[in-house]
Design a protein that fits this description.
Helix content: over 70%
Largest sheet: none
Number of helices: 4
Structural class: mainly alpha
Number of domains: 1
Shape: elongated
CATH class: Mainly Alpha
Oligomer: single chain
Radius of gyration: 15 Å
Number of strands: 0
Order of helices and strands: HHHH
């Protein structure tokens, strides 16, 4: 799928908004999740929150480099009172991110924006690690 620089900036801004919301969601879920059996994943969620913020910084820098203005809007944040539902919400978000970043890598390469594509691959790899952590916690 070939896109223009303007289109990829718009798409990256949507990704940026979702990174903001993922960080907030992870912070919330780590804070409200309870139960000894969730102790390890609660620690992971706190790590995930920081990694999502790092992704946001990378995306904002790339958007600026491409001549765009990084968004300050925040995507939808999912909450629940049920631990397993929270983990599923997080997993759904990661699986969506994986799909989006796979497309974004192809789009960046079609524009010959190879440095952007490399940054997106790094983010993609981290999102896949998050999905693996969450699947393991959910017993999937």
């Amino acid at each position: 799928m070939t896109v223009t620089i303007e289109q990829i900036i718009t798409l990256l801004n949507k990704d940026l908004e979702l990174e903001y919301s993922a960080a907030i969601q992870y912070i919330n879920h780590a804070a409200v999740m309870t139960g000894a059996e969730f102790g390890d994943i609660i620690k992971e969620l706190k790590i995930h929150a920081n990694e999502e913020i790092q992704h946001a910084v990378i995306l904002a820098d790339q958007i600026d480099y491409l001549g765009g203005s990084p968004s300050v809007n925040v995507g939808k944040i999912m909450t629940s009172k049920d631990n397993r539902e929270m983990l599923q919400q997080d997993l759904d978000g990661e699986e969506d991110a994986i799909k989006r970043y796979k497309m974004r890598v192809e789009q960046a390469e079609s524009l010959k924006e190879y440095a952007l594509a490399q940054q997106l691959r790094t983010i993609l790899a981290t999102e896949q690690e998050h999905a693996m952590d969450l699947k393991q916690a959910l017993g999937k």
